Amino acid sequence: MMKILMPTLMLIPLTWLSSLAWLWSSALSYSFIIATLSLIWLKDMSETGWTSLGLHMATDVLSTPLLILTCWLLPLMIIASQNHLKTEPQNRQRLYLSLLTLLQFFLILAFSSTELIMFYVMFEATLIPTLFIITRWGNQLERLNAGTYLLFYTLISSLPLLVALMMIQTKTGALSLMTAPFYYSMIPQHNLLWLACFMAFLVKMPLYGVHLWLPKAHVEAPIAGSMILAAVLLKLGGYGMMRMSTLVMPTTKELAYPLIALALWGIVMTGLICLQQMDLKSLIAYSSVGHMGLVVGGIMTQTSWGYSGALILMIAHGLTSSALFCLANTNYERTHSRIMFLARGLQMIFPLMAAWWFSFTLANLALPPLPNMMGELTIIVSMFDWSWWTIIFTGSGTLITAAYSLHMFMTTQRGALSTHVISLNPTYVKEHLLMLLHLVPLLLLIIKPEIITYWPS
Q1: Quick one: pLDDT at residue 457?
Q2: What's the confidence (pLDDT) of residue 347?
Q3: Radius of gyration over alpha carbons of the chain, in Å?
Q4: Residue 356 main-chain phi, psi, to 5 deg
Q5: Of 196, 211, 235, 301, which has the highest C-beta tally within 10 A?
């Protein structure tokens, strides 16, 4: 584990001491080394238990895919951010890379920690670099408002979780995930305790109704902030819900029905909101709310199929949504507008980029045999087994998702070129490499889907 974490720790001093020319290449090289070394976790992954990495750190079949996704995303964020930061002062570029590195370090500790208090601390610590990235490198004046929303939604919802964890530790004297089943009988089981443990993660997902911070944060964040938010930070919520389910009682019908109903209603409502969006980044952000509603529904069924489908969809959505934000950023860098109707007709100028748009649009609407389809279908089946009426909302949500995904592609790529577009920079090799590095893991998951299959005992 230290062999993997040491390059991460070394990145911070390196980015402050190196020259600007060496800055990006060294950061990118180290991040690719970390991403390659993280694949070792797949070899050590045990289907029956934990693989220890240290005194308070371990991996299992749930945390390993999310850890690898976290490590894989850092080099992609560095590649995507180069054009955005090339006019920035040298010290701001170093600070930016250091914050990305620090965020990756906190995420690795969060996903690999076995002590729940340590997980809570790392869960909250990810807020600090994210807040700096949004408020200091956002494009619009609304970035301060977006940072305020992010801060207060996250902190207020996580305070009940802290109280619940302290109470559980007082009752049991130990709070380790590896020994949690042995202390289950000592933990007081109550609906309020369940709600306190899960509320922070429901807001982080986010559940429809407490999602207002997400579109604001996505729209105002720079490209790296949008990528890490969509790909990893939202998945902390699903990961936390799955972990806490081993400590508290199974969800009663009184709690499950309103939360599942709200999640399913959110799938339909956010899909309809996407259909009327003019802002490209806002459309992709609301799309994430709809997909995470499906994940919440799958977890709430508390079945093996629901948990497995939720994990598959989280990984697949992380790669797909991150790629869509990268594509939206390439459009913005050339047209200087996020309004879809002002950036139409780009297929005639950038046919290869239009091919990437088409590929990830199909991934977003869950085209077979991509893992997005595997995750959604597994969740839909588990929810239909839980209650037949869920098929009305999941089926409607699937149709609306296909509608707004195709609307997004047709609006941005087809039609006549906007009259205000006079000259556009050509696409670069690094942009196509960035898209390829998003697509390759999705294709690999088609070949080996068991890597991200989670069957809880």
Answers
A1: 54
A2: 84
A3: 21
A4: -65, -40
A5: 235
Residue type, 196: A
CA atoms within 13 A on the CB side of 89: 3
Q: What is the pLDDT of residue 19?
A: 57
Classify residue 446: in a domain, yes or no: yes
Return d(Cα 230, Cα 234) in angstroms, integer.
6
Q: What is the model's pLDDT at position 448?
A: 75
Residues contacting 201, CB < 8 A, separation 6+? 161, 236, 237, 238, 240, 241, 244
Residue 58 belongs to what H/E stretch?
strand 58-59
419 lies in a domain?
yes
The pLDDT tens digits for 254-291 are 788 888 999 999 999 999 999 998 889 999 999 999 99
Residue at 171: amino acid letter: K
Contacts of residue 442, Cβ cutoff 8 Å, sequence gap at least 6: 316, 319, 320, 363, 370, 371, 372
Query: What interhelical angle do 390-413 and 253-275 show, nearest 10?
Result: 20
Domain coverage including residue 289: 250-456
Which residues 6+ apart lie within 8 Å of 304 measured at CB? 455, 456
DSSP letters, 165-176, are HHHHHHHHS--B
Taking the model in full, what pTM does it have?
0.91
What is the pLDDT, as a whole number, of residue 456? 64
Tokens of 59: 């991996």
- Given the structure tokens 């240290």, which residue do they identify? 54
How far apart, in whole angstroms, are the C-alpha atoms of residue 219 and residue 282?
A: 6
Which residues have C-beta within 8 Å of that of residue 337, sequence separation ≥ 6?
Answer: 343
Token pair belonging to 378: 């597994």
Nearest CA among 214, 271, 312 for reference residue 405: 271
Q: Which helix (H) or strand (E) holds 266?
A: helix 253-275
> Which 3 state secondary structure label does DSSP give 275?
helix
Q: What is the domain count for the chain?
A: 1
Place of tokens 């964040």: 221
With respect to residue 412, please indicate whether it lies within any of the assigned structural domains.
yes
Is the CB of residue 358 less than 8 Å from the CB of residue 346?
Answer: no
Is 185 a domain residue? no
Concatenate the DSSP letters of all residues of 102-142 into one string: HHHHHHHHHHHB-BHHHHHHHHHHTHHHHHHHHHHH-SSTT
Burial letters 41-55, b for 16+ CB under 10 A, else e: beeebeeeeebebee
pLDDT in tens, 358-373: 999 999 998 888 899 9
Q: Cβ neighbours of residue 252 under 8 Å, at least 6 residues apart? A: 191
Ranges of residues in the chain whose predicted pLDDT is under 50: 1-7, 9-18
- HSE at residue 453, side-chain half, CA atoms within 13 A, is 13
